[in-house]
Every structure is written in C-alpha cells, then in structure tokens.
Write a structure and sequence with these properties.
single chain
C-alpha cells in the first residue's frame, strides 16, 4: 500500500507544480501608420488576439462605442464560457461597431479601454482553472468580438 500512496503523492505534487496560470503578454508594434499586436516571444504581427471564444481587436481610440457598462464580463451569459473578466484598470463600454476588416456576421462584443497594462482572466472563482490562460494587454483600445461556429452560424460558447 505504501507504493500506491507514494505514487498518489507524486501525482498530487506534480499537478500542483503544473497548475500555474499561463499569461500571454501582448505588445503593440507600430509599422508606418498602422498598429499591430505582437505576442511576446513571437515575430508575428496581428490586428487581433484571442482568448478562447473571444477576440480582442486593437482599434483606434476614436473607435465608436456606446455607454460605459456596469460589468467586467466580456462574454454574454452566465455559464462557465462567459467568464472572460476584464481587470480593474480596464473600462468596459457597449460595443457598437465592428472593426472594418470583420465580416458582417461577426458577433459584436463590448469595447474596452485598457488604461494601463492589465489582464483578461478566465474564471470567476480564484480556484477555477483557466483553460485559455490569462491575456495581458498593453494600454490601448480594443473591440471585442465573439467566435462564430461556421456550421451553425451561432456564437460559440466555450
């Protein structure tokens, strides 16, 4: 029986060691008149990043938006997949316009302003293990959109 207990203890210890949150840091890179997001450690430039079923698009600070919302939640709903939560220094507004390069069937989410580097977390409780990793965004303006299931045309909820 001792051998089994040793194996269980080893598995438990290894699980705790590997349970740290992944944090994906993004930077803003300016090329000419355009700004792009770059994932730390990568050479690829993009107009958007992703956390599970939401996308955050880097947009101009004058991008149209509605009034400030009384929520930090970036995905609609109350299920586990809706738990993309903006950090304390992120202002959340009603989204009113898709970025120009998005298709008309794209699901519009809120518009956010990151006042200083902060994170979008996934999980409502502290002990909720994050399937997507946290996303660290630099100061800037971002339009959130939701992933669409191409087969059904409906919003994906992870």
């Amino acid at each position: 029986m001792t051998k089994v207990n040793e194996i269980h203890a080893k598995i438990k210890k290894e699980g705790k060691r590997n349970a740290t949150q992944e944090i994906r840091f993004h930077e803003i890179v300016v090329k000419g008149k355009e700004s792009f997001l770059k994932l730390k450690g990568s050479d690829k430039l993009a107009k958007a990043g992703r956390q599970g079923d939401i996308y955050f698009h880097l947009v101009d600070s004058k991008h149209p938006h509605g009034p400030k919302l009384k929520t930090r939640q970036l995905a609609l709903g109350s299920g586990k997949g809706a738990s993309h939560i903006a950090g304390a220094s992120i202002l959340v507004y009603e989204g009113t316009k898709l970025p120009s390069y998005c298709g008309p069937r794209t699901f519009l989410g809120p518009f956010i302003v990151v006042k200083k580097r902060d994170m979008i977390k996934h999980g409502l409780q502290q002990n909720d293990k994050d399937r997507h990793g946290y996303v660290s965004l630099p100061k800037g303006s971002y339009q959130i959109t939701h992933q669409m299931d191409a087969r059904t045309g409906e919003r994906v909820v992870d």
